[in-house]
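Re: folding output
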Amino acid sequence: MAVHLQIAEQVKKHRQAQKEFLKLDAEREHAIEEALSLAKAGQHFETNEINRITTEMNSIASAFQFPMRKQVTEQMVKEYILR
């Protein structure tokens, strides 16, 4: 019976991590969209918030074998808007 409880607890932790990862992914996408909007308008933008979220996501990803996300540079944003 103890094994079943351990498995159930592990599954619960995995589901919680997955929910947190998806929440952070949505926040990251929003932060990227904000940076793109500012860049397109020719205004100053920073990638600090995007990369803070990315670091949190990658911490979860490494523990639960989720896909890792790349850190975003200002150059990446500028290149994207020039497409």
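--- second protein (sequence, then structure) ---
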Amino acid sequence: MANPTPPDPDALALVRLNDKYPDWKVWRSFDEHGRPAAWVATNKTAGSDIAPTLHADTAEKLEAQLKNPGHAHGLAHADAVTRRKGELL
């Protein structure tokens, strides 16, 4: 009888983080060779004053950021476009 393949710890961490932080989309970036690189979380809440994207080297470091993500810097893209057109916010 063949030995079952053990679960991928990265896949398990992705599922756990996406379940635990539903306002974020947690994913892995890949390097030029197709290997997993950074851990990334994208804020799914439109218009939020919370950082739009978080990056870390490990799932644990990303989770620490997800617990206290910090504030966004600068203007959201839509606000910047509106200001360039001369419209008041």
